[in-house]
Amino acid sequence: MSSTPVLSPLQPVAPPLATLLDQLGQMYVLLDVQGNVIEANDAFLAMVGYAREQVLGQRSFDMFTPPNDRANRQRQFAAMIATETLAPSYDRPVLVEGGHICLIHWRTGFTREGGAISGVWMIGQEPSLSSMATPTLTGNSTHLQDFLDNAQDLVQHLSADNNFLFVNKAWKEKLGYTDAELATRTLADVVHPYYKAKLLYQLRNLYDGEPVNKVETVFMTNVGKPVHLIGSMSVVREEGQPVSSRAILHDITDRIKAERLQKVYYSIANLAISAKDLPSLYGAIHRELSKIIETSNLFIALCDDARTQLQFAYHVDQHPQHRPQGAMPFSRGVSEYIIAGGQPRYLTQGDYQQLIRNGTITAYGLVPEVMLASPLSIGDRIIGVLAVQDYNRADAYTPGDLDVLHFISNQVALAIERKRNEEQIGKQTARLNAIFESGSHVMWTVDTRANLMNFNRNYAALFLRRNGTYPVRGINLWETDLAYMPEVERDTFVHYYEAAAKGQAQRFEMSLLDSRGSEVWTDIYLNPIYLGDGSFEEISAIAHDITEQKRAQLALEAQEEKFRSIFESFQDIYYRTDEDGLLTIVSPSVREVLGYEPEEVLGTPVTNYYVLPDDHPKANAEIERNGGLRNFETQMWHKDGYPVSVLVNARMSSSGDYGTEGIARDVTEIQQMQDDLRQAKDAAETALEAKTQFLANMSHELRTPMNGIIGMIDLLDQTVETDEQLDYVDTLRKSSDALLTILNDILDLSKIQAGKLQVHETALELQAVMERIRALFIYRAEQKNIRFTYHITPHTPRYVVTDEVRLLQILSNLVANAIKFTNEGTVAIIVSSVSTDGDLHTLRFAVQDSGIGISSDNASLLFTNFTQLDTTPSKAYGGTGLGLSISRQLAELLGGEIGVLSDEGEGSVFWFTISACEARAEDLPAVPSVREAVFQPFAAVPRVLLVDDNAINQKVGQRLLSKLGCEVDVAGGGPEAIALATAPHAGYNIIFMDIQMPEMDGVAATAAIREVLGADCPPVVAMTAYSMQEDAGRFMSQGLDDYVGKPVKSRHLYEVLHRWLRPRQGRASSEQSAGTTLVPATVLEAGKKSVAVSPAQEVAAGQAAAGAEAATDTAAGEVTLDESVLKQLVDLGGAEFALELYQEFEQEVGDLLREAAPVIAAADFPALLPMLHQLKGTASTLGGLALAAQARHLEHEFKAGQTNDGAIGFQLLEHYFAHFVGEYPSAVERVANPSAV
After folding, report:
1. Sorted alphabetically, which CDD domains does this protein's record hold (predicted)?
2. How far apart are CA 1173 and CA 760, in angstroms?
């Protein structure tokens, strides 16, 4: 146990003792075992600066211990209580109000109660020179404080754990720390990290009693700048134990900087020699400067002597900005400002912004907080600027740093200039060496005594060939090389050498024989090499082999003679004029072309010969503008007075004057040929247009009857009751589909010829394709008692990928021809795979018949457009002559070819190949039957206006739309359609508009309806027999919304209705349903994008493809009424419906014929065209084949202007009509009641 005095337990010191301690300047504090303050006298309170009530009850560790020592002090106090041992006296720093620290010397002891420790008393006083915070010092302490604060060196006093107890004024000013900051820092926080370990090691040695004579270290200021210090340290011991240390340190930063500056200065000087190139030099300069100054943001900009160009040769920046790689024109940047001023500048951000406001400079990029910039000067010449800058701290640099930068900049300028000169010299040397060693020139130098001084490899090679050894420097050429020359050549060389040695440049040519005895011509130059003072010691020699030039010169002379011969035999006219336009040269061919002798035209103005005087100024203007004239057509006067067409090519004269030269070619015959070709081209284009119009008309006329046929098939499909009937309807549908598909492509021949026919490949089953072909043609074959079969070889893949429609079209053409030209026997299709490459097969389709056969001479004509082998008036077989041509092109489109094997009278084998990949069954597209595609009813009954001038088409269309659940109104023409559509409360949801109608066509009617209804106009869909590819687009561009081609099917109408008439969401009442606005789904979906999308664009592939129906042209012959059409009408609406249609048709045609009588009498046959068009379409729809055929024939004749037999043709039309009227009542009865027949 310690012998420290013990006071009564936790009792405050008696007042006389407390008063005595106050009078003695002693501080007294009583703590309990937790370290809480129980009592403190006035001296202690005065020292810490707190009132008594602020202190009592507070934890002494939290209130009076420096923050970085609290945990350690608390552990020491707890250990002291636990072990009941304590140091009798010690020095401890005390934290007082304001954050100051006072060092107090304490004496301590325990207080006890019942023998147990109840607290600790502490009596303390201030040791000399220990306080940093005591506001008043007296006596010697005051003088010592003043002495230390006025000292220039840095004085510090540290506790044993390296906390700051005292620092003088110079210490704080130099490093920038406040007392409050020092209260929370230790020595380790202030010393530079690089020097920390060394300094703490020296302190430990000092505490251990080892002498430390000198301390050299680096402290960091509060802004992070290093301060280099040197000095001494001592230790303060009490009772033999180190309690603190003192140090006096001297600032040697300037000396260190000076040493580093000098070292950097010399290093930069050496860099000019050691750096391999300028970029390496710039980087090395940057590294050297970073040793003495902050260089995080540094740039070097170089200018030319005229100060017109600036180049940022090197720049490193924390906020990089784009700078051009090369030189850029001088501007108003800060670099140009420094160069123009010629003085170093220390620029703060305020200075920078003031220069910007004054318009002195323009800011580029981020403005720095501070910048140091110095011109790079070599004497009075400025080559650029060196600058450093800082974006974050305005105190990053001092004005003294500017002096350092300026001092270094001169050496930097010298280093850059030297390195630039070295690189320039290196480039120049390399360039000269390249010139010296490259090319074919022989180069050498000699001194004035003809001693060889230098030479290139060409000279060495020549010397070796001439003398058998390599040359060496210093040999005398007169005694070596020249000694072996023939005497005449040697004397010539010596003469010119001696002249050059007198300072006279020489050039001469010399002929020598080479080692093979061939003559070699050399062009030689001898020139003195003058030094800077005008003297010379060496002569340069350059020799060039001009043998080829000499040979060329001789060849040129021969060519000139040859040219003269050609010139005189020239068929075109060659001419040349002077600047006044007078002919100076003209070839003798002017005699043959224009009839003049050359002497007659020389010296005369060229304008005398132009038929059109304005052509000559035009030609001259073209030559002046473009430097030449090409293919200028004009006419020249022949001497006999008639014009000659010529083609002129001319240019500025090559002789150097301001005249022209050129060639004029007689193109009279060529021009005549071009005129003939142009006429032929116009005729061909006219024929093509006629063909296109013919195809369009044919399509329109064929589709009008097809509309009734296919429409009836759709309606018939909805009335079948037995599987047998369903099979018949499906077969009929497939046949009509194939028929119309083929018809579409035949009529669209222009699409094939333009290369616009697209292949749509899908997986298919070959047997299914064969079955379709068989179903299409079996009836026709059986009618002729022909056995029609097909066979697929075993090694042929079952499933392939190709265009089924195009394949069917080729097969249909070939099979149709085979049946057509076979009167008895067989027609067979054989399908085989003739080659394979992986999954790719080459399939061969062969159509073999036992028909009439073809001769070998005619076989080559089969596959061309509109070609028929029998063109006689009595030919037995009809046709367009298009089928095989289309088949050839389709076969090529499918990756194959087509051909025929036949002998006349022995039958034929038409074959074609296609390329197709093998497929699997699961690849086949799902194709539900038509009956499976159930038409979903509309939520609201669509109100439809059907516009068509044909009564039959009206009834078919009305019945089809009614079957789809529509309420249909019919208009017979454009004016009636306008009246119905614009009537109040019309409320049509969609309008189906025929295009070709009398009085007003569908386009004009649509425009009129839109003009009245505006935005409330319902969708208008073109429903027409026009079927060419461009028809749909043309109707869309003319204001219609969609397109459906005739013949029309139920599913086509449903698709159009479904596109445009989709009810709005939600359940509506019956009243609301009647007025529900129906909008197209595509418009609803596109509404989010605010883009108007026409549903016609969704089927832009064309209605011809969407309708993919085909037909084969069948002659009407003398068949008055097609009972198959009649049966469809009866099935559609019953016998009464069919009879009503025919009666209305009878009445309509009778009226038309009566109206036509006076027109026929007046022979005004073109006026009958509208009537014939209407009659043709309606008769076709009703199955009046002979009547429709005659109407079509008359329409075609009248359009072509062939009206001579018009009256007779019309009588035949009336004859067919009479037969039709007499036959249809019994036909209707017969079809309606087949059991009664």
Report:
1. HATPase_EvgS-ArcB-TorS-like, HisKA, PAS, REC_hyHK_CKI1_RcsC-like
2. 36
pLDDT at 1066 over 60: no
- H/E stretch holding 1142 reads helix 1123-1161
Q: How many CA atoms lie within 13 A of 746 on its CB side?
A: 25
| Cα–Cα distance list, 1148 to 41, 547, 745, 959 (Å) | 137, 103, 34, 21
Pair of tokens at residue 501: 């040695």
Residue 245 burial by Cβ neighbours in a 10 Å radius (0-12, 13-18, 19+)? buried
The DSSP output letter for 160 is T
Given a cut of 70, whether residue 1143 has pLDDT beyond it is yes
Share of the chain above pLDDT 90, in %: 26
Q: How far is CA 146 from CA 141, 179, 279, 349, 1166, in A?
A: 9, 17, 56, 39, 133
For residues 999 and 1007, what is the distance between their CA atoms, to the nearest angstrom?
A: 15
pLDDT, position 24: 66
Structural contact between residues 636 and 646, judged by C-beta atoms closer than 8 angstroms: yes
Sign of CA dihedral 269, 270, 275, 276: positive
Asked whether the CA dihedral 329, 333, 337, 339 is positive or negative, the reply is negative
Crossing angle of helices 334-341 and 349-357, rounded to 10°: 90
Interatomic CA distance for residues 306 and 20, integer angstroms = 90
DSSP structure class, residue 938: P
The dihedrals phi and psi of 790, each to the nearest 5 degrees, come to -140, 155
- Provide the terminal-to-terminal Cα distance of the chain, rounded to the nearest Å: 148
Residue given tokens 């559509």 in the structure block: 981
Radius of gyration of the chain (CA): 58
Residue-level pLDDT at 136? 35
pLDDT at residue 1008 tops 90? yes
Express each pLDDT in 830-846 by its tens digit. 999 999 999 999 999 99
- Proportion of the chain above pLDDT 70, given as a percent: 83
Q: What is the bridge-based pairing of β-strands 908-918 and 898-902?
A: antiparallel
Over residues 694-721, the pLDDT tens digits come to: 666 666 666 666 776 777 777 777 777 7
Q: What are the Cα distances from residue 1049, in Å, to 189, 709, 774, 1023, 1159?
A: 95, 10, 24, 11, 38
User: Which phi and psi angles does 277 have, rounded to 5°?
Assistant: -155, 180
What lies within 8 Å, CB to CB, of 1005 at 6+ separation is 947, 974, 975, 977, 978, 993, 997
Q: Can you spell out the DSSP letters for 723-762?
A: HHHHHHHHHHHHHHHHHHHHHHHHHTHHHHHTT-PPP--E
**38 contacts 10 by C-beta, under 8 angstroms:** yes
Question: How many residues in total does the chain contain?
Answer: 1237
**What separation in angstroms does the CA of 658 have from each of 408, 606, 649, 1201?**
64, 15, 17, 64
- Left (φ > 0), alpha (ψ -120 to 50) or beta: where does 1112 sit? beta
Tens digits of residue pLDDT in 640-653: 999 999 989 988 87
Query: Which residue segments constitute the domains of the chain, with CATH numbers given?
Result: 15-125 (3.30.450.20), 161-251 (3.30.450.20), 256-429 (3.30.450.40), 440-551 (3.30.450.20), 570-619+632-666 (3.30.450.20), 758-923 (3.30.565.10), 935-1107 (3.40.50.2300), 1118-1236 (1.20.120.160)
CB neighbour burial string for 1128-1162, b if at least 16 within 10 angstroms, e if fewer: bbbbbbeeeebbebbebbeebbeebbeebeeebee
Structure tokens at 380: 């009075």
Please state the rounded mean pLDDT for residues 1038-1050. Answer: 82
Give the pLDDT mean for 529-539: 88
The sign one gets for the Cα dihedral 904, 906, 907, 913 is: negative
- How open is the CA angle 54-59-64, to the nearest 5 degrees? 75
- The β-bridge relationship of strands 898-902 and 116-125 is unpaired
The strand pairing partners of 827, in sequence order, are 788, 849
